[in-house]
């Protein structure tokens, strides 16, 4: 089930981990207790990406941002780079054990992780070992 009832407190890119704060939805600011396993290293729209299996969900309320995008035939689009401006309704989902997500990551994180590693949502909305 997606939560679309909260407004963004900052610009949010698809595929980041966020939390609900007093000012709205923002990228997580500290490591959270949701555990994910790197199932595959791949690319998403030409960017390094991780396929992550949700292993467990703790008490921290962390959400995965999956905003809709406007598809137009006359321009190229890239859902991995789609951003939602501040003060807009956020389409996000609290992950459940057994689900799988894919997220783009920077080159350094991609190189540092291996298939089978366990990661958690971390400050800035990405993941860390």
What do you see in this structure?
The protein is mostly beta strands. The mean pLDDT is 89. Helix content is 5%, strand content 40%. A hairpin with a 2-residue loop joins strand 5 and strand 6. It has one helix and twelve strands. The chain has one domain (2-128).
Brief rundown of the structure:
The chain has one helix at residues 107-112, and strands at 2-3, 12-13, 17-21, 24-27, 35-44, 47-56, 63-65, 83-84, 92-93, 100-104, 118-121, 127-128.
Topology, number of strands? 12
Mean pLDDT over the full residue set: 89
* Amino- and carboxy-terminal Cα gap: 27 Å
Helix content: under 10%
- Overall geometric form: globular
Which helices and strands, and how do they pair?
Blueprint: E1 2-3, E2 12-13, E3 17-21, E4 24-27, E5 35-44, E6 47-56, E7 63-65, E8 83-84, E9 92-93, E10 100-104, H1 107-112, E11 118-121, E12 127-128
Antiparallel strand pairs: 1-9, 2-8, 3-4, 3-7, 5-6, 5-11, 6-10, 7-9, 11-12
Please describe the structure with a list of short key phrases separated by commas or semicolons.
5-stranded antiparallel β-sheet; 129 residues; 1 helix; mainly beta; single chain
């Amino acid at each position: 089930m997606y939560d679309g009832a909260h407004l963004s407190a900052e610009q949010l890119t698809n595929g980041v981990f966020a939390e609900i704060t007093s000012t709205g939805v923002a990228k997580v600011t500290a490591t959270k207790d949701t555990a994910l396993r790197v199932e595959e290293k791949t690319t998403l729209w030409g960017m390094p990406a991780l396929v992550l299996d949700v292993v467990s969900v703790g008490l921290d309320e962390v959400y995965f941002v999956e905003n809709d995008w406007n598809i137009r035939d006359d321009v190229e689009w890239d859902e991995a780079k789609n951003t939602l401006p501040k003060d807009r309704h956020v389409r996000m989902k609290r992950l459940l054990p057994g689900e799988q997500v894919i997220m783009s990551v920077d080159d350094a994180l991609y190189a540092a992780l291996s298939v089978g590693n366990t990661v958690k949502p971390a400050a800035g909305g990405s993941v860390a070992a």
